[in-house]
Write a structure and sequence with these properties.
The chain is built from ten helices and twelve strands. It is an alpha/beta fold. The chain has a seven-stranded parallel sheet with strand order 3-2-1-4-5-6-12, with helices on both faces. Strands 8-9-7-10-11 form a five-stranded mixed sheet. It is elongated, with a radius of gyration of 19 Å.
Amino acid sequence: MGDMRLVVVGAAGRMGRTLIRTVTETEGCVVVGAIERAGSPDLGRDAGQLAGVATLGVPVTDDPLTAFAHADGVLDFTSPAATLQFAELAAQARIVHVVGTTGCSTADEARLAAAARHAVVVKSGNMSLGVNLLAQLVREAARALGPEYDVEVLEMHHKMKVDAPSGTALLLGKAAAEGRRVDLAEHSVRVRDGNTGPRHMGDIGFATLRGGTVVGEHTVILAGPHERIELTHRAEDRSIFARGAVKAALWGMGRKPGLYSMADVLGLTPRG
C-alpha cells in the first residue's frame, strides 16, 4: 500500500499551513490537495511554498470535489458551515474525514453523524494526545470523587477565537459528566452574572478567557471540602493538533464507516 493521500482544507490559515507542514514531515502520507475559499488571494499558489516547506507541485484550489476524488482523506479545521459541506463530499468519495472544527451545533453534529454512515469521520474538540489523556483523568476523577466535588472548567485562547466555550472545554466537561453518568446539557453552567444564588450540587461550570496569542490553556478544577484538585493542559504550539489529526487520518484508513473520536484513535475509549 502506498502513502495515504491527504487533502488539507482551509489551507491558507494558520492550522492549514501547520497541517501541510506536518503531513510532509510524517512518514506514510502525502499532500495531494489544498483547498481555499473562492476568491482567496492564495489560489494558485503551491501548497508547500504557502506552508514554508519545499515545493510540492500541489496548487491551492477552490475545487474540493476534484481534490477529494483523488484522495484517501481530508484534514478539516475550518468552520461548521464549511465542515458540513466537506462532510457531504467526503461521504460521497468514501474517504476519511478528520474534523477538528469546533462550534458545531446539535444539528451540525447530527449531519456529521449521517455522513459517518458512509465514511470514516474522526471528530474531536481537540486532537492532541495530552488533552485526550487529560479527559480520561477528568473522567476518572469525577467518577471517584462524586458530585460533592464541584467541577469548573477554565479555558483561555487567543483573541481571534470565535466560539466559546472552546471545543476542548466542552470535551473536558463531557468527560466529567460521563464520569458521573449524567447528561452534560442538564448540568452545564455557561454564564454567571448578577445575583445567581448559590452553586447547585452537580453543576459543571465553564469560564472563558480570551486575549493575546494564547494557543490554548485548559484547567479542570475539582473543588471539595477543604481541598482542591486542578488538572491542567497548556498547548504551546499548534503542531500538537496537526500531529494528532494526521495520526487520526492514518488510523482511519481502511476502517469501517462510522463516527469516531480521538479517544478511539488513542485507545482511550471510556469504559462502560
